[in-house]
Write a structure and sequence with these properties.
CATH architecture: 3-Layer(aba) Sandwich
Largest sheet: 5 strands, parallel
Oligomer: single chain
Distance between the termini: 8 Å
CATH class: Alpha Beta
Helix content: 40-55%
Radius of gyration: 17 Å
CATH topology: Rossmann fold
Order of helices and strands: EHEHHHEHEHEEEHHEH
Strand order of the largest sheet: 2-3-1-4-8
Bound molecules: BIS(adenosine)-5'-pentaphosphate, magnesium ion, zinc ion
Structural class: alpha/beta
Number of strands: 8
Shape: globular
Number of helices: 9
């Protein structure tokens, strides 16, 4: 199954991607995670991406599309994938079509996670991420047992640089202007399925899996 996850910053894309990809046994490909791994690894790509990410702006298409092209061509993505954070503009959606066409494949479904902006702000302001294993926590909704320490691997937790209140506001504006048009784009192609992403993580996962199950061709 080839799936794209869309939704505003903080909708729970990363959180749900983990469970959905596990359930359907497909690799999770998160452009945000790949950029952050490059930032912490000090690569050229990371240096280029960081200035845009810190400002809450989109990384330029040339950089992003080449990276996704490369990733989707890898062996583990041959029989399916879950994209988290790509495409993020209608232009990127067109590029995804071209990449898949080149690989002789096509997209099955786009899952849209719906949340309101008050909840987005609550989710992002309390988010903490593990430096070591990448596990995502929330100070209120899913607090680690020990302050500042990952409950899964013992690693140190940090707050993402783009989760400051001002940058979150800007990311929401960028989402509304550049990414939200994807909803109409995919809905027009009858590839969109929207679910309510409010409520407990497990409940949202259940909704996501039921919504996607009909598209699982295996
Ligand atoms: P990216 O990393 O994709 O960030 P984003 O889209 O802003 O989304 P987030 O990762 O912030 O939120 P999420 O939906 O994954 O929520 P999460 O599961 O963590 O992109 C970052 C930057 O990279 C961009 O700004 C851009 O610069 C660049 N970039 C990436 N892709 C690009 C592209 N294609 N083109 C150009 N640039 C690109 O959940 C949030 C919090 O809520 C967590 O603490 C979690 O524990 C909690 N939570 C989750 N679900 C629930 C629930 N049901 N109830 C309560 N709490 C919950
Ligand atoms: Mg994420
Ligand atoms: Zn950890």
């Amino acid at each position: 199954m080839r799936v794209v996850l869309v939704g505003p910053p903080g909708a729970g894309k990363g959180t749900q991607a983990e469970f959905i990809a596990g359930h359907f046994a497909i690799p999770k490909i998160s452009t945000g995670d790949i950029f952050r791994a490059n930032v912490s690894g000090g690569t050229e790509l990371g240096r280029e991406a960081k200035k845009y990410m810190d400002a809450g702006d989109l990384v330029p298409d040339e950089v992003t599309i080449a990276m996704v092209h490369d990733r989707l061509g890898q062996d583990d993505a041959a029989s399916g994938f879950l994209l988290d954070g790509f495409p993020r503009t209608v232009r990127q959606a067109g590029e995804l079509d071209s990449i898949l066409e080149e690989l002789g494949r096509s997209l099955d479904v786009v899952l849209d996670l719906e949340v309101d902006s008050d909840e987005v702000v609550r989710r992002l302001s309390g988010r903490r991420t593990c430096k070591q294993c990448g596990q995502v926590w929330h100070l209120e909704y899913d607090p680690p047992q020990q302050d500042g320490i990952c409950g899964r691997c013992g690693g140190e937790l940090y707050q993402r640089d783009d989760d400051s209140a001002a940058t979150v506001r800007h990311r929401l504006d960028v989402y509304a202007a550049q990414t939200a048009p994807l909803i109409a784009f995919y809905s027009g192609r009858e590839q969109l399925v929207s679910i309510d992403a409010l409520g407990a993580v497990e409940d949202v996962t259940e909704r996501a899996i039921s919504a996607l199950a009909p598209f699982d061709a295996r």
